[in-house]
Amino acid sequence: MRGGEAADGIDHVVIVGGGTAGWMTAAGLAHMLGPTGVKVTLIESEAIGVVGVGEATLPHIKAFNDTIGIDEAEFMAATSATFKLGIEFVDWGRKGDSYIHPFGEFGLPNEGVAFHHYWRKFADQPGTGDLDQYSLPVVACRKARFQPPSEDPRSVLSTYRYAYQFDTLQYAPFMRAHAEKSGVKRIEGKVVDVALDPENGRVRDLTLENGQVIAGDLFVDCTGFFGLLIERHLQTGYDDWSEWLPADRAVAVPCQSAGPLLPYTRATAHEAGWSWRIPLQHRTGNGHVYSSRFLSDDAACDTLLAGLEGERLADPRFLRFVTGKRRKLWNRNVVAIGLSGGFLEPLESTSIYLIQEGISKLVELFPQTQDCAVETREYNHWMDLQFERIRDFLILHYHATMRDDSDFWNHMRTMRVPDTLEARLDLFRAHGHVSAYDHGLFLVPSWIAVLIGQGVMPDACDARVANLPDDHVRQHLAGLRGHMDKAANNMEDHAAFLGRYAAISGAA
Amino acid sequence: MARPDHMRFHAEIGLPLEALIKSGTAQPVLAPRFPSASGPISVPFAPVAAPHEGVEFHHFWLRHRAIAGDEASDLFDLSPAIALDHSVGAGAPLWDAVLKGGLAFGLRLERGRYAGALLQLAQRAGALVDAGKAGDHAPDEHGDLAGDLVIECGPERSGGGAQAEAGAWSNGRLTLPCTLPCTSTLPGAEWQVCVNAARRFVGLSAPLANSANEQREYTRLAQQEAQRIADMDALLQESDPLASHTFASTHPALARKLALFAACGRIPTEDFEVFTPPEWLAAMWGRGVRPRRYDRMANRMPQQQLIEWLASLKRQRDALTRARETV
Ligand SMILES: Cc1cc2nc3c(=O)[nH]c(=O)nc-3n(C[C@H](O)[C@H](O)[C@H](O)COP(=O)(O)OP(=O)(O)OC[C@H]3O[C@@H](n4cnc5c(N)ncnc54)[C@H](O)[C@@H]3O)c2cc1C
User: Fold this and answer.
1) Contact A219, A16 (CB under 8 A)
2) Are residues A75 and A170 in the same domain?
């Protein structure tokens, strides 16, 4: 029985890369495994720099921050963060449409039947309103309001969660300070050579530009799109999913804030992609994600600049990527976390979530020795499932559309999608039932939000609701809508809440 | 036998636990005994102790044993569920202890009375009950029974017509997975698959004439569930589960569980598990599968704290044993 040291033991983790992925991994491993004797070293190169985008997150990040002991108020101040209750999708189903995918529920289930069936019964009738109006986080978004959720399950305030929108250039340094406090050793330098053990093909050590050699037991590749260890040296291979997710470029530019400080990210569909708008305390992040098969860089940049709400604060920056994932995210003694492991494009802000999943799974399975083929296999199995389920959800946004105003949308609307997604769509279209799973990021309310938001309307509602008296259902709908509206009105203005936040949390 | 899910199911159908207790229909079960190739195994519903900072108790226990070298003790010696379970059949005081103890428990049901209670509820809700055997009804020219949907609940299948695979819903016929032989040997499995089937069917409610997609989804879920039960059965019945060469192809999810548990003591779960991780732990443990190492995160707990934790669990177990003996 082993729990401690061994001859081929794994006690020293070397992380290459100091972007969001690198510093989150360093902080996570040092906090959770440091007390068990694991030493963590991080190498980063200021000369190379970071990708510098990635500002919108999902609610899971709060659990990660809490686990590693980050104080929320301190974190928000240091990263100029705002709260996020969901994502608004504009022009996706049809031009002129808008819906919000909230971090929470729609309505409340009644007699065991999900709320959207009640809504569906009268969706075509005047006065019913959009499904959005029955979700507290959506109503709060539309009113630019915010309040932390309640832990009392009887309260309507317990029907949502929240995430953050933060300045990515401030986030990595914040995590760095936290990680260094937990004992992470940082080395500045560019890795120029990687030595593999000829016997087993594992990475043995890394050589920096200044000649310094750094050995380790386990290496975490956080070098972003470079994939320095996992691809350039281990040649792991990549599953290219651009057949379904053809966006391969982005252009990003920050601008001055304008208008109310919204507690949500906006994703607006364009001719051959979409643009993001992420409101931060001190500025707004913007970017246009597109497919170079259908749109030129210049046209993409023009669309982005034309849509800026405030004065531009920097020159536009172009980025290239291929959607997909590494064939094995853990190969030999290298684990790829962050962009080096794969990228599914920024829609729905899933990358930082996948970084977190990578870290927690690694901690759970952290091997004692190099004899860890089973742990490696399990890690890859788990991460593959995560990537694949997110992939299907992202494809849905592009595929479930009525847009026919460009070659891009015609292609996306008519393309063949994975069978798993096709079956889901068929099931939902019939009577509004959503195929569920236990392990995966996007749960039933998320699927409902996007399906209905993009105009996939079930042919009929659940038979139990269809058979209920009309008055009963109408009352249920009206009661809930009023309830949501009132609850949102009682929330505080998001900007005002942020202004008071440090004081509130100090007093708590 | 009903699994701990009885709390939710009986609340859903309006059958209060007090009524089942008062009428003598139900006795609590905390650790049913599963038959296995190496003899019966006690499989408690509740874990031996709650996880600490996300790490399951057995990792701490393994750490302690590695240090103390106490090879004679067994992980399940400390199980409060097993300690309490021995008092089954002792009557009212036992119910008190179970209800106060807060441990997950199932119900050993007196079949006739339980069926009677369900029948009453069904009739009250409008079900027409015919005491005749299904075979008494004349099948139509396709060999199907009259009615829009026939639900096959027992191993004895009704006559004629295209027979659905166990767990499937198609051609106007829905066959519960309890027609699979292993559901009757694994305590609580038969009850659970019936409950799950009812929930799944209701949850996918659609007009029967237009339910092809719902039928497909129902069947997909039911078959995954049947596979999870078959996994447990295979684990219990194989003479040496770890040495099985066929599991990788016939029971890939079980092979994954066994390999990971043996490697590092973690128990991976699939979608739609029937048995919980504490039950898988007990079953694998009972079949002699032991992890080669414990989770390194268990080393975060100071030794003294671990010793005190184990001592308090032992005291708790002793108190339950004493309570049992005084009944
Ligand atoms: C257009 C776009 C928008 C995005 N939006 C979101 C979003 O809204 N939400 C979200 O969750 N995610 C988003 N992402 C993803 C997100 O940006 C990344 O997941 C996150 O920033 C992590 O990046 P990284 O740390 O893997 O890589 P990087 O930030 O590129 O860091 C790589 C690091 O490796 C170092 N390095 C590389 N080579 C060497 C070498 N040879 N020697 C030493 N060091 C080296 C670099 O110096 C750097 O420190 C977006 C991504 C893109 C492309």
Assistant:
1) yes
2) yes
